[in-house]
Design brief:
mainly alpha; 3 helices
């Protein structure tokens, strides 16, 4: 019974974190839209499109590596160094 309570609490925390993350991304996208428009208008050499393509490839490789063998841990989600995991 105790593990059921822990699972429910962990699920609630994960859902709350996902909700806050989603709202944060939506607000950030809303705030950055005018800046992105100006940046795209000023990008003559195509540097921004090349950078976005490189980021998409990096993100896809990282997601594939994550699916291959990593397990989710609450400590990893709350770690201040979680964004540096690609350096190891």
């Amino acid at each position: 019974m105790q593990t059921l309570a822990v699972d429910i609490a962990a699920t609630f925390v994960n859902d709350a974190a996902a909700l806050v993350t989603g709202f944060g991304r939506a607000l950030l996208r809303f705030a950055m839209t005018p800046i992105d428009r100006v940046a795209n208008a000023c990008d003559i050499a195509g540097v921004l499109t090349e950078r976005r393509a490189t980021f998409r490839m990096w993100h896809a490789n990282r997601a594939r590596a994550r699916l291959e063998g990593r397990r989710f841990s609450l400590l990893g989600r709350l770690s201040p160094f979680r964004h540096l995991s690609h350096l190891t």
